Amino acid sequence: MKNNIDQNRNWYLIDAGGATLGRISTVIATLLRGKGKVEFQFNLDCGDYVVVVNAEKVIMTGHKEEQKRYYSHSGYLGNLKTKTVTEMRKSHPTEILRHAVAGMLSNTKLKDGFLARLKLYTGENHPHANIKFIDLPKSKVK
Known about the structure:
Blueprint: E1 11-15, H1 21-33, E2 49-53, H2 64-67, E3 69-73, E4 80-84, H3 85-91, H4 95-104, H5 111-116, E5 118-120, E6 134-135
Parallel strand pairs: 1-2, 1-6, 2-5
Antiparallel strand pairs: 3-4
Helix pairs in contact: 1-4
C-alpha cells in the first residue's frame, strides 16, 4: 500500500445546484474518504479531492429551513449563539454543506485531512480550471 504522499488522488467536480443536502453530503463524504477505491483502508487517508460549485443552492426538505439550528459557543457562560438555515445562507452559504459533510465523517485524526480536500464555492466559478476532473453521473448526485 502506498503511503499518503505517494497516492494519486482524483479530482471530482460536483454541481450542488438543486441537490438535497443529505444526499449530496453522503456522496461527498464517500469520495473524501475513498471508500470506492480498491486500496481503501480505514486507517489511511486514501480519499480524493472534491470541488463543489453552487454550494449555496442546496435544498432542504420539509420545514428544515425554519426549524434547523446551528449552534456555536465561545466557552463563556451564557454565550450560546444559534442561527437558522436562512441566516446561515446569508452570512456563510458554504458552511451549511461543510457542516453536513463533517458530521458524516468519523471523528479521528484523519478528519482534518478529509475536510482540507473539500473545496466549496458559491456560483459556477472556481480557481481549479486547469485540473482534469472526473465527472460523476447525474444519478449519483440528486
